[in-house]
Specification:
The complex is a heterodimer. By secondary structure, chain A is an all-alpha fold. In chain A, 82% of the residues lie in helices and 0% in strands. The longest helix of chain A is centred in the middle third of the chain and has 30 residues, at 100-129. Chain A is elongated. The mean pLDDT of chain A is 91. Chain B has 2 domains: 4-222, 3-Layer(aba) Sandwich (Rossmann fold); 224-325, YebC, transcriptional regulation domain (Alpha-Beta Plaits, 2-Layer Sandwich). In chain B, helix 3 (94-104) crosses helix 4. The model of chain B is unreliable at 318-326 (pLDDT under 50). At the A-B interface, helix 1 and helix 5 of A face helix 2 and helix 3 of B.
Chain lengths: 254, 326
């Protein structure tokens, strides 16, 4: 068990070194969510606030910017694993005594670190835009942890596809899955304003609970039920995606 | 106890595609074992099964006395592997790659730096150790890959075509390291190669693989002696003459075998120095003038030709040409 942690740590450091040496790859992950955040709030912020009865639409949108950033950053583990497979380096890692799960967890852990840093930065920009944070500094920490946990669960999709197919295109599908999930959540308006069919889909969509959990931290103060639902949704997603990762790893050595 | 042992080892990807079709191996500790075969003969699949990367369809194998399926983790800890096409992470530096390998192979922290420095010195990469791997030449990457395979002082090392595509200087350097490690540390090497010179120079024992089966096995000297004849090669001008020349020399008394390869008729004869003149006269009688006549002792390529029906060197050259053009 110790080997799982130590080897995951060493492989995480290697993956983070890649990020530090290729910083340009992170520009899109930072710029796109902040750009959409600024444009959405600037374009429809005041009218949406009136229409939906939301006093602070900037705070309402800030978690969406965080989740967009998470979705972009969470694709790296899968794509980088495909690169390792194509180079033959993944075989070199498989030949070491390192536990197989560490080969996946090392990259996923690096995604979590990157996502936490990125999320903290987006929250900082949100605060500059006037989003506010009802739960204070501790709320920021919980929001960033929530983003990191969601990133881990979400990265698992790309990682599983990468391991199963060895294809960069397939690994990128993991990223594309996010947008339907985001638009089927109360990302731009409260769920009560949805048509019944959309409200039903939003209710069974785990991203809805993550959005509402983060939003509660920003707008409402400490809401244990909303936070628990958010972490519950992340846990459910995580169990599913990590099972897929294990399935993909088994396929690599068949 | 054999360092590497296999019995009926097979990998069938489909019922029709039998990459490895039931091979037996017993390689003694401290040997350099050459595994020869053209591309697609099953060499790499065999290595991938012996190194736990592929599960066999049938049969069993042991490395360092450990079953490769039931004790895969222990097998991985005891072996070093440099796969075909050095698969390295080109964003890391050479030193970082070796250090990560050392950590994953559980080299004690107190010995890690010294071991990495030692290996960089052995493979002549000290000066470029802190450069990103993307700046390394193919030969440097292969040397680093070999160093990574040795970081935990394994007793058995698998090298899958370690010198394919390398220039002669880099190839010679790899051969030197392999020879030294085998002599000084008694490391057992399982070396797949398309280069007969490589097997001839390094290997204590050689197996020739064709279509998933071992078709010949023994020391290079034994295999060459097994031909039992000299080799007379007659290069002929036209295809028509080639056929006639082949028919003519088959009638020569004392001929053991005749093969037509490219533009040459290869004659396996006893006492070649006496036969060479008679063969030329025989062709002259059929009004055929050979462009070149050579007499040689059998080489591993001749053994390969006798066992498989085609030259291995020609296959390797064709493969290299395809790789270059693709």
């Amino acid at each position: 068990m110790t080997a799982v942690f130590t080897d995951t740590y060493y492989l995480m450091l290697r993956a983070l070194r890649e990020t530090i040496r290729q910083p340009a790859l992170e520009i899109g992950n930072v710029f796109i969510p902040i750009f959409f955040f600024a444009v959405t709030v600037g374009a429809i912020g005041s009218s949406a606030a009136r229409a939906f009865g939301v006093d602070n639409y900037t705070g309402f949108q800030m978690p969406i910017a965080v989740l967009q950033g998470v979705a972009g950053a969470a694709g790296v583990a899968g794509i980088a694993t495909v690169t390792d497979i194509e180079r033959g380096y993944f075989d070199k890692l498989l030949l070491t005594p390192a536990p197989r799960i560490s080969l996946a967890l090392g990259r996923l852990a690096a995604d979590v670190v990157r996502i936490c840093i990125l999320s903290a930065f987006i929250v900082f920009v949100g605060l500059l835009f006037g989003s506010g944070m009802e739960t204070g500094v501790l709320g920021i920490v919980v929001l960033v942890v929530m983003a990191g946990a969601f990133g881990l669960a979400y990265s698992g999709i790309g990682m599983a596809l990468a391991l199963k197919t060895g294809s960069a295109q397939a690994a990128q599908l993991g990223f594309l899955i996010f947008f339907p999930l985001l638009f089927l959540s109360p990302a731009f308006a409260p769920k009560e304003y949805f048509a019944p069919w959309l409200e039903f889909l939003a209710t069974i969509n785990p991203v809805t609970y993550i959005v509402e959990g983060m939003r509660s931290l920003v707008l409402e103060g400490w809401d244990a039920a909303a936070i628990a639902k958010a972490f519950g949704a992340i846990f459910g997603m995580g169990v599913l995606t990590m099972s897929l990762v294990l399935w993909g790893l088994r396929g690599r050595t068949a | 106890m054999a360092a590497i042992f296999a019995q009926g080892l097979a990998k069938h990807f489909t019922p029709e595609i039998k990459a490895v079709d039931g091979i037996d191996l017993a390689i003694e500790p401290g040997q350099i074992f050459g595994f020869l075969g053209a591309n697609g003969s099953g060499k790499t699949t065999t290595v991938r099964m012996l190194t736990t990367l592929l599960r066999p369809t049938a049969g069993r194998a042991e490395v360092s006395g450990l079953d490769v399926e039931n004790h895969a983790g222990q097998v991985r800890a005891s072996i070093g592997v440099a796969l075909q096409e050095a698969g390295l992470d080109d964003i890391q530096t050479g030193r970082e790659l070796l250090t990560l390998s050392a950590r994953l192979y559980r080299v004690p922290s107190s010995q890690m730096k010294a071991r990495v420095d030692e290996l960089l010195r052995i493979v002549d990469l000290e000066e470029s150790a802190d450069r990103a791997l993307k700046t390394y030449s193919g030969g440097m990457q292969r040397r680093l890959d070999l160093a990574a395979a040795l970081v935990h002082r394994p007793t058995v090392v698998f090298l899958d075509e370690p010198t394919t595509g390398l220039d002669p200087i880099s190839r010679d350097a790899i051969w030197r390291y392999v020879g030294e490690l085998n002599r000084t540390e008694g490391v057992t090497f399982f070396l797949t190669t398309q280069y007969l010179e490589e097997a001839d120079r390094l290997a204590d024992e050689v197996a020739i693989m064709a279509a998933g089966k071992i078709v010949a096995q023994g020391s290079p000297a034994e295999l060459k002696a097994s031909i039992g004849t000299d080799v007379v090669s007659l290069r002929i001008g036209s295809d028509e003459d080639l056929t006639r020349a082949s028919d003519a020399v088959r009638r020569f008394e004392g001929i053991e075998d005749v093969r037509v390869v490219d533009d040459a008729v290869i004659c396996y004869v006893r006492d070649g120095s006496s036969a060479i003149a008679a063969l030329v006269l025989l062709l002259d009688g059929a009004n055929i003038r050979p462009r070149e006549v050579t007499l040689s002792q059998p080489t591993l390529d001749d053994v390969f030709l006798r066992k498989t029906g085609h030259h291995m060197e020609a296959d390797a050259a064709a493969d290299a040409k395809v790789r270059k053009s693709s």
